[in-house]
Design goal:
The chain has 9 helices and 12 strands. The protein is of the alpha/beta class. Strands 3, 4, 5, 6, 9, 10, 11 and 12 form an 8-stranded mixed sheet that branches.
C-alpha cells in the first residue's frame, strides 16, 4: 500500500502557498535541494507529475493541485489529533538555547525527531548571543545549549567546526571603485565579527562597517539590499545572498567552532535531546570532539 509522508505533503502545501521551492524550503525549515528531493519522492508515490516547468520556476500540474487539497485535509487531521492530546499531563520540559546560526535545518530535523520520540515533553526555546546564553546555562535557565565555543568546557557533549564564509548580495555590492569594503556585522561581542576584521586587517584591506545590530535578520537585510557583505556560515547562502565571488579577492576566514553543552543535573530527556543534536550535526558538519 502506497502512503504519503506528512513531511512531503507539508512541502507540497508550502510550495502551493509560496510559489517557489526556495520559499517552500524556508517555510518547512529544510534546504531547497531537500525539498526538491521530497517532491520527487512524492511524485514517485503518486505515480504522476505534480510539478512542471514554468519559465524559470515550477508550477503545479492538475494532479498537483488536486493533491494539495487532499494534503491540507490530511495535515489538518494530523493537527487535530495532536490537539486532542493537549490536555494529557506533560512529562516535563526541556529548555534549548541556540544562536541565530542554528534556527533552521538541520536543527529542525533533530527537533522533529525528538518531538516524535518524546511527544509529551515540552520544548522551550531561547535564541540569542553565545555569551548571554552561556550565562543562562550557568544559571540553570537552559538545559541544552548550542553556541559558539570560546573555550573547552566540562559540560560539553560535543564540539564541531564549520567554515566561515564571506557572503555577498546576489546582485552585487553598491560601492565605488577603490572605496573601503562595506561590512554588515553583528554588534560585539561576536566571533564572526572579530574573525572578519582580523582577516581584513591582516590582508591590509580598507573597510568600513555600514550596518550593525543585534539581529542576524537585520544584517542579512542589509546584505540583500546590496549595502554590504558579511561573514557567517555557508548555510546562509539563499534568498538573495551568495558566497562572495572570487573576483572580490577577499582574505580567507577561519573555521567557526561551536559546542553542544548540557546543564549539570539535567533530566534524561535533555540528555536525549543533546545526544540527538550531536548525531544530527555529526552527519551535517565536521564534529571535532
Amino acid at each position: 500500500m502506497r502512503e504519503f509522508e506528512p513531511d512531503h505533503l507539508r512541502a507540497l502545501v508550502a510550495f502551493a502557498d509560496t510559489g517557489t521551492l526556495a520559499r517552500a524550503a524556508e517555510v518547512v525549515g529544510r534546504t531547497p535541494s531537500a525539498v526538491t528531493a521530497q517532491m520527487q519522492r512524492l511524485e514517485e508515490v503518486a505515480g504522476v507529475a505534480l510539478l512542471r516547468p514554468a519559465g524559470r520556476g515550477r508550477e503545479l500540474t492538475e494532479a498537483g493541485t488536486r493533491l494539495v487539497a487532499h494534503a491540507r485535509t490530511i495535515l489538518g487531521a494530523h493537527r487535530a489529533a495532536w490537539a486532542s492530546l493537549a490536555t494529557i499531563e506533560p512529562e516535563g520540559q526541556v529548555s534549548l538555547g541556540l544562536t541565530q546560526d542554528f534556527t533552521g535545518s538541520p536543527l529542525i530535523d533533530a527537533l522533529r525527531a525528538f518531538s516524535g520520540s518524546r511527544p509529551r515533553v515540552r520544548t522551550a526555546f531561547r535564541v540569542g548571543r553565545s555569551a548571554e546564553l552561556s550565562e543562562q546555562l550557568a544559571a540553570g535557565d537552559i538545559d541544552v545549549l548550542v553556541a559558539m565555543r570560546q573555550e573547552v568546557r566540562g559540560d560539553e557533549v560535543a564540539s564541531f567546526s564549520t567554515p566561515m564564509r564571506w557572503l555577498a548580495p546576489a546582485d552585487g555590492v553598491s560601492m565605488l571603485p577603490g572605496a573601503p569594503l562595506p561590512l554588515a556585522l553583528l554588534d560585539p561581542p561576536c566571533g564572526f565579527r572579530d574573525a572578519a576584521l582580523r582577516a581584513l586587517d591582516k590582508a591590509g584591506l580598507d573597510y568600513r562597517i555600514v550596518a550593525t545590530g543585534v539581529s542576524l535578520d537585520g544584517v542579512f537585510a542589509a546584505v540583500r539590499a546590496g549595502i554590504g557583505i558579511t561573514a557567517r556560515l555557508e548555510a546562509r547562502t539563499h534568498d538573495g545572498i551568495i558566497a562572495a565571488p572570487v573576483e572580490m579577492a577577499l582574505p580567507p576566514l577561519p573555521h567557526a567552532e561551536f559546542s553542544i553543552r548540557l546543564r549539570d543535573g539535567a533530566e534524561a530527556s535533555a540528555e536525549e535531546l543533546a545526544e540527538l543534536l550531536r548525531r544530527t550535526f555529526e552527519t551535517q558538519l565536521q564534529v571535532v570532539g
